[in-house]
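Quick one, tokens below:
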């Protein structure tokens, strides 16, 4: 009878092995589309033999383990590739928004506004007395200033949106960090003793780690074995230990000055700035956001540079000319440093050099009197004010808010013109534009209120359009970068840079997408579920299960027969 019972035990072991294999196969099929899942397999071995005469005899089959086909090296390659792809995708998407902002439809946007602005000055030069031509110049100047403001505002909004997305990404990263540490604690419990492998938990942890790496650059490793026989999982971000086994630290963003910085929260609650470390890794969406913000700031700074160059150059030319009518009173749009400050000492938008500018006083009979104001290396603002006040027909003073003010006597008007020092353009007297950046550029209020103040000529002769022609020529004149480029060329260069940067990241994204797809295909081939293979296994294990069941039935019949013989 012992032989029959041994046979029953052998049959049961086969039944159990087949059932476990069937269950594992079905689990593989059920998780065929589960992200991060790796095919599992039941490993079988012959059960320990029994000693008998004349020799050993088999005692069935034993389940030694259920293992995962997960290849940690391949998973790491996929994770790194996916993280880099996310970096390129995020950067490319943001730069595409900048491209769309710059490359407006034909007939609209900054490029069109620049062309219309210079074209209207060209039209004015041919008909300087035309009220319509002067109105077009003023309106196109307003449109141009508004175009600069719109671009600056859009870039500013993008930076704000970037800060918001940065915070959202860190919130998501913190949730993943907490979940990974929790799962790691479960893995430790499941693998207590270092014998069993928590395959499903490890797959889940691996998928969450991959999701985290798509957000922030990470490094992972397993520490030396603990006294329990287990290796402890560890993860670092920005060189700081974020996860160690089931223990974890989190991240936070905080505003420091004008920047949104990324911090690691230490055990005592103190913060460690890891912004630069994360940014320099150039992987994941957070690194992309930090780097893209720098790129957008660079673009914004260049738009400011173009706006300031345009303002300064137009104003320098405009203060060489004269409008159709003079001023009764004129205050500088920019503040001087102090009355006693040397005019060439800096602090104003345009450097002031030695030279002179003219003051033309017109009496009620139309008689013109011209006087020159000389500026040298030691001239102070008070000196200039006194020189102006010494001219018959006008007076000057520096107000309490440090604005230089010139006033004409009753019945008289004055022009400030023929400036070769940059003084008038720098303090903002008789200028065309006010402001010094894309955000605050606007048409000088004095001109906005009176188009006759547009200095189209070098004289106040109604037919003089020489100065308007000079301003129109600034479109192509090599007046910037030490005489090497024009305003239009500088703008076109920036548009080109935006396009090149955008195209470079699109190419990097597409190339990385192909590489990631290739690694993912390799991963699916190595660790993914093949439904055809699993279907074949189902048939194999089903037949094995049926055979074991039949064997048990045979043993049962034999046992009944023997028992019948005894009774």
């Amino acid at each position: 009878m012992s032989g029959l019972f041994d046979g029953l035990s052998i049959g049961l072991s086969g039944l159990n092995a087949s059932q476990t294999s069937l269950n594992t196969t079905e689990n593989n099929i059920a998780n065929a589309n589960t992200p991060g899942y790796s095919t599992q397999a039941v490993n079988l071995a012959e059960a320990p033999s029994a000693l008998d005469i004349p020799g050993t005899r088999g005692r069935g089959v034993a389940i030694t383990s259920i293992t995962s086909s997960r290849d940690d090296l391949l998973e790491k390659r996929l994770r790194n590739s996916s993280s880099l792809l996310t970096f390129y995708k995020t950067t490319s998407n943001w730069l595409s928004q900048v491209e769309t902002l710059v490359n407006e439809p034909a007939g609209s946007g900054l490029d069109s506004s620049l062309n219309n602005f210079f074209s209207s000055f060209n039209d004015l030069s041919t008909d300087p007395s035309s009220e319509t031509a002067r109105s077009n110049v003023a309106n196109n100047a307003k449109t141009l200033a508004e175009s600069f403001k719109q671009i600056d505002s859009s870039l500013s909004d993008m930076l704000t949106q970037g800060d918001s997305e940065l915070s959202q990404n860190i919130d998501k990263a913190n949730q993943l960090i907490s979940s990974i540490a929790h799962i790691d604690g479960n893995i430790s419990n499941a693998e207590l003793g270092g014998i069993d492998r928590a395959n499903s938990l490890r797959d889940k942890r691996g998928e969450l780690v991959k999701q985290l790496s798509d957000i922030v650059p990470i490094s992972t490793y397993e520490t030396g074995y603990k006294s329990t026989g287990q290796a402890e999982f560890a993860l670092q971000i920005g060189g700081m230990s974020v996860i160690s086994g089931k223990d974890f630290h989190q991240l936070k963003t905080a505003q420091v000055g004008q920047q949104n910085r990324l911090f690691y929260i230490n055990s005592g609650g103190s913060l460690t700035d890891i912004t630069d470390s994360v940014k320099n890794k150039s992987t994941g969406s957070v690194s992309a956001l930090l780097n893209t913000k720098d790129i957008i700031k660079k673009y914004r700074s260049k738009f400011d540079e173009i706006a300031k160059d345009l303002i300064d150059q137009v104003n320098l030319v405009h203060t060489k000319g004269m409008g159709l009518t003079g001023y009764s009173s004129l205050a500088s749009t920019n503040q001087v440093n102090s009355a006693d400050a040397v005019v060439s000492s800096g602090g104003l938008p345009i450097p002031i050099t030695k030279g002179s500018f003219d003051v033309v006083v017109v009496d009620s009979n139309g008689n013109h009197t011209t006087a020159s104001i000389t500026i040298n290396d030691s001239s102070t603002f008070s000196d200039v004010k006194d020189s102006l006040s010494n001219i018959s027909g006008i007076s000057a003073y520096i107000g309490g808010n440090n604005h230089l003010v010139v006033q004409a006597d009753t019945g008289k008007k004055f022009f400030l013109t023929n400036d070769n020092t940059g003084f008038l353009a720098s303090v903002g007297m008789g200028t065309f534009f006010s402001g010094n950046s894309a955000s605050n550029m606007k048409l000088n209020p004095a001109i906005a209120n009176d188009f006759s103040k547009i200095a189209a000529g070098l004289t106040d002769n109604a037919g003089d359009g020489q100065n308007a022609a000079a301003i129109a020529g600034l479109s192509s004149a090599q007046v910037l970068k030490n005489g090497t480029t024009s305003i239009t060329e500088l703008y076109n260069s920036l548009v080109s840079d935006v396009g090149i940067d955008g195209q470079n990241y699109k190419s990097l994204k597409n190339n990385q997408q192909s590489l990631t797809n290739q690694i993912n295909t390799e991963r699916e081939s190595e660790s993914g579920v093949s439904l055809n293979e699993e279907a074949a296994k189902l048939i194999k294990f089903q037949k094995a299960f049926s055979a074991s069941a039949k064997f048990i039935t045979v043993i049962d019949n034999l046992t009944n027969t023997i028992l019948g013989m005894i009774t």
